[in-house]
């Protein structure tokens, strides 16, 4: 049995003496680092406008400067672009190089592993069914007949009438803890960009069938990665039986 719920969450993501030779080297290094920073900012803005080829050119120029100092974020962004543009094998090569790097942070390695898992998933066809149902009587009635909604860890001791709100708060906190806040900088020249996440809590309490839609595929992928890390919850029940419950969450990427 499968039921549907519309869960609305908006997450605002806010995001100087030596010899003349030494001085010249220092000036050159400062210039290189400035170029590195400028190109990364340009790449982010291009991603926000979905000008992916130009964004990759900027990231490749950054790589040529050899100034990453253990920061593999630009390479992860390049892999994400390749992933959302259908170049899955090329994306996997970059993800694997990040995972194998000896100077990569645990956080960056974990993100690369999570994105690689998504990249290798068998993709189900996207559906707009949840959009069609949102304002229908059928959808609203479906909400009413879920006797015991899924419960986020820690909600079990609260009164039943608060479980839906508790679930919403739990998911919102998970998103804030898990999302790459800096990724919102891709919206610096576009204004906010929204991704819609449709997913299910199955009868074991695990998240499944995650589908991310929105006008920016790169941000949709980040939203997918974040939701895929949702912890196991208590499944929903109707008439004493566990049921699959569907949710839709809009995530708003923006910078203040």
From TrEMBL:
PROSITE patterns reported for this sequence: PROKAR_LIPOPROTEIN
Protein name as catalogued: TonB C-terminal domain-containing protein
